[in-house]
Design goal:
The chain is of the alpha/beta class and 448 residues long. Among the domains are: 199 residues, FAD/NAD(P)-binding domain; 97 residues, Alpha-Beta Plaits. The protein has twelve helices and 19 strands. The strands form four sheets. Strands 4, 5, 12, 13, 14, 15, 16, 17 and 19 form a nine-stranded mixed beta sheet that branches. The two termini are 42 Å apart. The relative contact order is 0.15. The structure holds flavin-adenine dinucleotide (FAD). The site of flavin-adenine dinucleotide (FAD) has 37 residues, from helix 1, strand 8, strand 17 and helix 8. The site of flavin-adenine dinucleotide has 37 residues, from helix 1, strand 8, strand 17 and helix 8.
Length: 448
């Protein structure tokens, strides 16, 4: 451990990105203050500031690895708390293009914690670190800056009737999709970042059930993923208390209804018939709730020519993905790992940090934006690369319904472990094309 970079770091927002940022900042600042509008200590259920936390969340394999690196023993701790865990490609039942993929042990761990439970375990770990403090039930009003606006010096907070200014060496905005940094930049005389947007008009509607029949067998979750042929999707994990969560997803305005009959009719149209079969006789234990995602949004901070010193942005505030691909928490973890490397360079340089995280965002952004463009109603330019990529991934999914090694290869890439190029190796392409046509795939498993 070297010298501290400064006395105080303030993290705006105690969601996943904020907690992970606080974890790495604690190595470089004497004191790390996390500020959140919600009550957080002891909270293990959904909360107002994270309304999306009521809906199915899965942590991709890469995110799982980084969390384990930042919090050694976390996976074992979750399993010890009774959270179902298994193999991402072996114990999760996936449907793509309406067809069930073959399953295979991949060595990629999937822990089926709900978002509030995962966050609670991570929060407990972060708050146990020396120097880390939490200001809960505190609203962030804005930033303070030097007279010439060249440096952010702290934040203005409101808790009940009290207002307070906190001075900080660095302020990290982790307030999520609703981040106000673009507006704050404008107030300080800087341009806003450009935004890339893919309009998806997506909604999740989620309900919990106590099942009478077990549709899972040895599987942890049944996930028919939306595809152009069947744009209605779902995630149906079993939870640690023996109940099941059913999150329905509907794109381009085809939102899953909240009334009993409409909800069930939507379930009936899913590619996985066993979900309808099990929930029609199951006991619903709450009312359905909906969360709307109008668009995926990427803010191009790395392209700004000027940016104040002392301010960083991380997590959904930089890039909020289409959630069906399950990338947000993992990208937040990858950005936190990049922040750790950045701090190790000995100073905080915001523009350099944004340039470091931009390539981290590129792959998940490109793959999710391309996958969205496979839906004819999604607006955007379908370049040759996008069209060829989507046609190939569709063939790969078909191949994976016949040979589980393609399931594994797909999830290594979708899980952000392997780069997309891993699916493009000549031997792999040959085998995918052969297997998806119905021919006999190579048996030696080589992907060269
Ligand atoms: C429906 C849905 C499903 C998703 N599923 C997945 C998934 O399966 N896998 C995955 O990896 N990701 C998923 N995501 C994305 C994931 O939730 C986020 O990427 C991830 O949580 C990182 O978010 P964040 O911490 O940047 O922001 P958030 O989770 O939004 O947290 C922001 C925090 O800031 C606080 N805050 C905001 N404004 C203020 C203010 N003015 N004052 C004080 N506090 C404030 C809030 O209370 C909150 O605690 C999903 C998202 C949605 C919408």
């Amino acid at each position: 451990m070297g010298e501290y970079l400064g006395k105080t770091a303030v993290v705006l927002g105690g969601g996943m990105a904020g907690l992970l940022a606080a974890r790495v900042l604690s190595e470089s600042y004497e004191r790390v203050l996390i500020v959140d509008r919600d009550e957080l200590v002891g909270v293990r259920g959904p909360r107002r500031g994270v309304p999306h936390g009521r809906h199915a969340h899965a942590l991709l394999a890469r995110g799982q690895q980084i969390l384990e690196d930042l919090f050694p023993g976390l996976a074992a701790e979750l399993v010890g708390a009774g959270i179902p865990a298994g193999d991402l490609a072996g114990n999760l039942r996936w449907y793509f293009n309406g067809q069930r993929l073959r399953q295979k042990e991949s060595g990629l761990l999937s822990v089926s914690a709900t978002r509030p439970v995962l966050e609670a375990h991570v929060r407990d770990r972060v708050l146990a670190l020396s120097g880390v403090e939490l200001r809960e039930r505190t609203v962030i009003q804005g930033l303070t800056a030097s007279a010439d606006g060249s440096r952010v010096t702290g934040v203005r907070l409101v808790a009940g009737d009290d207002t307070e200014v906190l001075t900080a060496d660095v302020v990290v905005d982790a307030t999520g999709r609703g981040s106000r940094t673009p507006a704050w930049l404008e107030e300080l005389g800087y341009p806003r970042p450009a935004e890339d947007r893919v309009k998806i008009d997506l909604a999740y509607t989620t309900r919990h059930y106590r099942l009478r029949d077990d549709p899972y067998g040895s599987d942890l979750s049944i996930n028919p993923v939306a595809s152009p042929d069947n744009p209605r999707g779902a995630f149906f994990p079993k939870l640690s208390d023996g109940t099941s969560m059913l999150s329905l997803t509907g794109l381009l305005g085809d939102h899953p209804p909240r009334d009993d009959e409409g909800f069930l009719q939507f379930v009936k149209t899913l590619a996985a018939p066993e979900i309808f079969e099990s929930v029609q006789s199951a006991e619903p234990i709450d009312e359905p709730v909906t969360f709307h995602v109008p668009a995926s949004v990427r803010r191009r901070y790395e392209r700004l020519a000027r940016f104040p010193e002392g301010l960083l942005v991380i997590g959904d505030g930089v890039c909020a993905f289409n959630p069906v691909y399950g990338q947000g928490m993992t990208v937040a973890a990858m950005e936190a790992a990049a922040l750790r490397d950045h701090l190790a360079e000995g100073s905080v340089r915001p523009r350099r940090f944004f340039r470091a995280i931009s390539p981290i965002i590129d792959t998940p952004w490109d793959t999710s934006a391309s996958a969205d463009l496979a839906f004819p109603g999604v607006e955007g330019k379908r370049t040759l690369k996008v069209r060829m990529g989507n046609a190939y991934i569709s063939r790969l999914h078909t191949a994976a319904t016949r040979d589980a090694r393609f399931t594994e290869a797909f999830f290594r890439v979708a899980g952000l472990i392997d780069p997309p190029q891993a699916l493009m190796r000549p031997g792999m392409v040959r085998d995918v094309l052969r297997a998806s046509k119905g021919g006999t795939p190579a048996e030696d498993g080589s992907h060269r």
